[in-house]
Amino acid sequence: MGASVRPSFSEGLGGEQGWPKALRGRGPQAVSGILTALGRAGLWSPRRQLLLATWQALSRALVTMDAESLLLSLELASGSGQGLSPDRRASLLTSLLLVKRDYRYDRVLFWGRILGLVADYYIAQGLSEDQLAPRKTLYSLNCMEWSLLPPATEEMMAQTSVVKGRFMGDPSHEYEHTELQKINEGGKVFEEEVVVQIKEETRLVSIIDQIDKAVAIIPRGALFKTPFGPIHVNRTFEGLSLSEAKKLSSYFHFREPVQLKNKTLLEKADLDPSLDFMDSLEHDIPKGSWSIQMERGNALVVLRSLLWPGLTFFHAPRTKNCGYIYVGTGEKNIDLPFML
Amino acid sequence: MGDPPPDPEPPSQPPSSRRSSQVSQRRGLELSRPQPAFPEEAEQIPLDTSILQSNRGVLASQANLQGWSLGASPTQQENLTMFQAEEAQLGGVEYPSPNMGFPSELQPQLYLEEGGTQATQNAGLMLQQLQRGQSNLFQQLESAYLETQPDLLGQFNMYQRDDLQFSQHGPYLRDEPTLQFSPSEPGFTPFTLEVPEPEPLELAVQNAKAYLLQTSVSCSLSLYEHLVNLLTKILNQRPEDPLSILESLNRTTQWQWFHPKLDTLRDDPEMQPTYEMADRQKALFLRNGGGEGQQEMEEEVAETAVPNVMETAFYLEQAGVGLSSDESFRIFMALKQLVEQQPIHTCRFWGKILGLSRSYLVAEVSFREGEEEGEEEEAEEMMEGGEGMDAPDEEDEEKDTDIIPKPMWKPPPVIPREESRSGTNKYLYFVCNEPGRPWTRLPHVTPVQIVQARKIKKFFTGFLDAPVVSYPPFPGNEANYLRAQIARISAATHISPLGFYQFGEEEGDEEEEGGAGRDSYEENPDFEGIPVLELVDSMANWVHHAQHILPQGRCTWVNPLQKIEEEEELGEEEEKADEGMEGVEQEVGPPLLTPLSEDAEIMHMSPWTTRLSCSLCPQYSVAVVRSNLWPGAYAYASGKVQL
């Protein structure tokens, strides 16, 4: 246990709040490590396990449209104007619990709603213990029966990038796309028009994946990384302070870091490796593709993405409440640079 | 923190080896001189130990947590990094108070200090007490290591060196004294052969303690101090079940250390805007005039122009659209305030437009008959005045310089704006950023603004006077752009079920009006609601009740040629103008109350989507129509109610 204690102190003492963050940013493992070390020094040893148990039992997990806190989250995210009708809310609460039981997920989050012409898709995601692992996505047309979607692959992305326009709302609908394909026939090369059928389900999968990769965000300090690799929810995350909440740099993309390696050493020196392991929003291109607003005076900070209009992220500063939801047509706003 | 409770267990073994000189009774900052070194063990300790030790905050037991001061850690960089065998400075050690009953303080350890520090209440003593039932080992260790030269002096800021340091610790384990007593390894450690027995244990304890005392550049609180604080707090307050609240105590102690409570005279600066907003919104909820007489109640019960926002919000919520209910209520109050301030005949909450830094709440109002807005006339006068100024300047220039060939191009005539209360300017729009803020009136929209607004696509920033930078250039600032968009949206998406509105009796012949079409309608008193299912099935059951905007930018067509004929002065230009304008044809748009099924398709999809709000119980559900052209435009109808 000594090994786990040491890095947590050596790495964790950074940031503006310094030392308390070291202890705060630690989840059950590290704190138990500390306690174990102290126990070896003659303290707390008989009560260590009890402490661990209480630690883990205390305080809710990070709120990101969790099934348990769905109502509060929807209320806070309602500033964008899109929400759920009461019957949908009620059915979501019940069905998400059942999904969690059936698929044995650690947490089930309500991701959002994609508006289609005929019907809307309601999307939920299930998570395992490791927060950054690929999530399982489920969709439903009536918030009651959920179907699992296949994980997104590169070919799916390439295939569906040619499809434009709104979603139909019918999962079995097929888009037709004519392509020119070169066909070799006995030495002769000629082009032929091939009609490619793309299923709407595939398109759904790739759009959800794109949205997640591009604009799913999480506040700094909500997750922490243990030295062994897995990412955990930070149970001591008390929320961003007001001054931090207005800055883009306090929010991270909820995905594997892409730009982190490109930072200079000077920048990296200020980072806290256990908390700053994801890309922050301030380097997003184009600049200004996020709109930060404070609502209700300063009691709620809302970030809206302009690249994927419909994604709303909300956070009540100094509290644990935060989350994001996507309610939109599932189309990327490629006019963004002209609109700013 | 109250007075410290009497020490429950007087220490039974004051270590005999403690030097009384190390003890001081005062509180406050103190720095005592270093003790003569303990020479013998000193040399034996390898020189490469360097447990980080910067400074130490010290807690006096009853003192407020806020009263601590810490020496500056970064300045100690110049200090020794290696253990010196000679002397080290000892910080003053404080007795918490005579009540605690500790006869002598355990001299904590060597540490370097810049400023004064307050004495530490040695946690070891407390721990000692706790451990009393378990083992006396710790006491012995504590006592023993007083005599040894503490080996920590190293002060380093970089944690990367941690690895080096600890790996160079050498043979003894840094923090596991108990390990050496484990029966599985009976005394095979190298020390037991060479040095007297307590030695490695003391060293290990010292290492442990020094490690606990380390702080970093960015914060000056060490784990040791924090634990001291925490345990002191617990011992002072003696909560019922300390284990279960341990974590929250931990967090609050940390929080208090870094965020001392500001004095009561000053408000928290961060919360200032929130409080201001709350104050402003509180004003909304107060009744106008203060008194609550019978008279006022009667007046309010009578018809008021304020719309029933809550009812609308309820239906829209069924459709899955809308703001949260307390937000809706605040909007309701804000509309009420608007109605009181302005002479308003009808009022309606039009919607909310999201902007980059702020959003707009839009209210659609129409003034009472005869209440002309004075501002508008002033604006017109100013514009005309401006135009008059320009002409004389041009003439001057022409006389002075060579005659430059005048361009043949004449700008197309400005199409006149529609009168208030007609066409696109049928309603007035007020906007505010948040309920509680004052309402601002938007200017009337001109056709050229609408035409340009069709060509550009820009985000709203939230500030009405922000410029709209775009190509083709938009004539006006954000207020004008907002108004133009509102006009377009209203014209396209204000719909109602078939039959809800009907045309009034016509007075003139349709042909005489130049094909402008009817532009007024009235509610149909005989309207019986269309069943919801039918509303959902067919788009023919819905009609537009807002006039369509022609490509010209107006609802009623105006022949720009007519205007030129009035200005007949320059013969030559007139002919050319006629040539250019020959192709102008009258623009006709779909007449009022056209069903939605006639709407043009957008990219092979119908421009409207209908939905039942709740498929589980169609009897009570609401028919919802959503526009695919303007995302965010919703209309609902249920029985006789419609929006």
UniProtKB/TrEMBL annotation, chain A:
Coiled coil location: none
Q: Where in the cell is it found?
A: Cell projection, Kinocilium; Cytoplasm, Cytoskeleton, Flagellum axoneme
The answer to whether UniProt assigns keyword DNA damage to this entry is no
What is one term from the GO cellular component aspect held by the record?
A: axoneme
Q: Which coarse location class applies to the principal site listed for this UniProt protein?
A: other
**Is-annotated flag, keyword Cytoplasm?**
yes
Q: What's the protein here called?
A: Radial spoke head protein 9 homolog
Spell out the family assignment given in the record's similarity comment: Belongs to the flagellar radial spoke RSP9 family.
- Which species is this record about? Acinonyx jubatus
Q: Which InterPro entries match?
A: RSP9
Q: Where is this region: Disordered?
A: 1-22
**Superkingdom of origin:** Eukaryota
GO biological process terms on file: axoneme assembly; cilium movement involved in cell motility; motile cilium assembly
Keyword set, alphabetical order: Cell projection, Cilium, Cilium biogenesis/degradation, Cytoplasm, Cytoskeleton, Flagellum
UniProtKB/TrEMBL annotation, chain B:
Going by the UniProt record, its keywords in alphabetical order are: Cell projection, Cilium, Cytoplasm, Cytoskeleton
Reply yes or no: does the keyword Phosphoprotein apply.
no
**Where is it located?**
Cytoplasm, Cytoskeleton, Cilium axoneme
Name the segments for region: Disordered: 1-42, 367-420, 505-524, 568-590
Compositionally biased tracts (Low complexity): 15-26
Q: Where is the composition biased (Acidic residues)?
A: 370-384, 390-400, 505-514, 568-585
Where composition is biased (Pro residues), the residues are 1-14
Identify this protein by name. Radial spoke head protein 6 homolog A isoform X3
The organism's taxonomic lineage, starting at the top: Eukaryota, Metazoa, Chordata, Craniata, Vertebrata
